[in-house]
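Hi all, posting the design record for the shared folder.

TITLE: backbone redesign
STEP: 1 of 1
STRUCTURE INPUT:
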């Protein structure tokens, strides 16, 4: 039987790299799209055996260039997302207009599935530009293509993330760590390999016309996440709640001086809402899409040593 051909956008991120490795090992032919073949693109060429992975450079999402990529494909997976806006990379362009275009091309080419990675807990966060753009993207996809599958994960963590690794980098050097809204915002952190397993099983079972909320095995507040990171790093820091007016000033400063801000005003708005299942949709747990979900602390211990004194030669690592 001819192997399914899968087109992946956002292939160089933490989900994309892990997914390429999983799908090619499962005998799917993958076309991975990257904006720069000679930097990030070169790293994903080694993720699949010859003949099972094709890496394509696409600097702009022009319709005709995109259309060529969809020829003879069975499935399109969109993993592209941004946390802050910059120039043409606006929330509306990336989270709404691009998914809409991909859904249209999926329909035009009669694909069996269009899998789109959205985000958990955005239904109530209507004041957040990030959240509203993600929701608008979901609405557009559902209007256009009936064979959609929308996945809404909580925070995705791994040694390649921009979440736990960023926080550990800060905790290593800051004697005092600020938290917002008293750190009460809740999350269901899910490991990147569990997200990839959900995608692979969704392809295998040909799940379509569904929205699935993807969660890890435990609910954790932001303050508890910081405390667990500190425990894993075996250090102590003073955790201080920051009043909202001061937090806004800090976010404005970061946006002004940093290319990739540690915190933006929009992220501050988003942090006011729990990153939890809405109850409107099935979850990966209710649908039995994971063999065994990975716990935050267990996986964290596998890579937190890189932020400890002594790095890979730290005492715990050697034992």
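Okay, here is what came back for every position:
SEQUENCE:
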């Amino acid at each position: 039987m001819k192997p399914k051909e899968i087109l992946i956008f956002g292939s160089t991120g933490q989900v994309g790299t892990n997914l390429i490795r999983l799908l090619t090992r499962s005998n799917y032919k993958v076309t991975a799209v990257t904006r720069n073949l000679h930097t990030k693109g070169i790293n994903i060429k080694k993720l699949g055996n010859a003949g099972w992975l094709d890496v394509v450079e696409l600097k702009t999402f022009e319709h005709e260039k995109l259309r060529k990529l969809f020829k003879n494909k069975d499935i399109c997976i969109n993993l592209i997302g941004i946390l802050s806006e910059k120039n043409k990379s606006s929330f509306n362009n990336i989270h709404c207009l691009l998914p809409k275009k991909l859904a249209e091309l999926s329909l035009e080419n009669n694909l069996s599935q269009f899998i789109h990675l959205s985000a958990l807990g955005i239904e109530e966060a209507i004041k957040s530009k990030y959240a509203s753009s993600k929701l608008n993207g979901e609405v557009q996809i559902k209007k256009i293509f009936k064979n959609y599958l929308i996945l809404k994960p909580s925070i995705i963590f791994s040694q390649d993330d921009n979440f736990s690794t960023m926080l550990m980098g800060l905790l290593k050097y800051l004697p005092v760590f600020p938290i917002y809204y008293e750190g009460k915002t809740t999350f269901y952190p899910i490991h990147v390999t569990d997200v990839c397993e959900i995608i692979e099983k969704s392809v295998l079972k040909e799940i379509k016309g569904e929205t699935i909320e993807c969660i890890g095995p435990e609910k954790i507040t932001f303050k508890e996440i910081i405390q667990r990171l500190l425990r894993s790093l075996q250090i102590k820091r003073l955790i201080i709640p920051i009043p909202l007016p001061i937090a806004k000033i800090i976010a404005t400063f970061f946006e002004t001086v940093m290319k990739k801000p540690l915190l933006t005003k929009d992220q501050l708005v988003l942090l006011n809402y729990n990153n939890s299942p809405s109850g409107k949709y099935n979850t990966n747990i209710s649908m039995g899409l994971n063999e065994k979900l990975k716990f935050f602390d267990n996986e964290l211990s596998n890579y937190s040593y890189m932020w400890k004194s002594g790095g890979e030669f730290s005492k715990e690592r050697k034992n």
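COMMENT: The longest helix spans residues 91-108.
Let me know if anyone wants the other runs.
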